[in-house]
Amino acid sequence: MLIKCLTLYTSGTQTNIIVGDLNCPKIDWSAASCSSDYINKSLLKFTVEAGFYQFVDFATRGSNILDIILADDDQIITATTPGPPIGLSNHLTINFTLALETAEAISNSVPNTIRYRWFMADFDAMQAFLLDVDWQSMICHNPSATAIWDAFVNMLYNTIDLFVPKQNSATSCSRRKRYPLSLRK
């Protein structure tokens, strides 16, 4: 029932984070393996198929990792550290840091709109550049779906920046004279 709930409420349009004591001591998170126990196997299968990454790499109760942090973005959590238990609990608390942009940072940023001049692009050089990329190494160094997608997109953006001339849209708009519709006729 938990897996159905998690499947229903995890969305592909935003980053999802699941935290808590899921009480599955038979899962070896570092090896992504577990015994054939139905509950442990079901949870591990869900995390793998949904593209979740487990961030806690230290025992949280005895020698087991019971309290976990799962996210479908492997770069959203930048640090996890053990903390003291709360009250009479025998589970450690987990301190973690999220990599988020604050609303203040977003509102203070000035959009820098770049306009690519595709008609002047050097497509032959782009092709040669992309053929020279060591794609196997890129896949090896980015094992999760999110990481490889980010690396691939970054490679494409870098290629575009190298071989497609760009122009700041603010300067291109300021040069163009804009007459009222009534004067254009």
Give a quick summary of the entry.
Helix content is 39%, strand content 19%. By secondary structure, it is of the alpha+beta class.
Features:
9 strands; 185 residues; three-stranded antiparallel sheet; 2 domains; elongated; two-stranded antiparallel ribbon; alpha+beta; 39% helix; Deoxyribonuclease I, Chain A; 8 helices
Describe this structure in words.
- It is a single chain.
- This protein is of the alpha+beta class and 185 residues long.
- The protein folds into two domains: 2-103, 4-Layer Sandwich (Deoxyribonuclease I, Chain A), CATH 3.60.10; 110-184, no CATH class.
- It is built from eight helices and nine strands.
- The strands form four sheets. It has a three-stranded antiparallel beta sheet, with no helix packed on it. Strands 2-3 form a two-stranded antiparallel sheet.
- The chain starts with a helix and ends with a helix.
- The model is unreliable at 171-175 (pLDDT under 50).
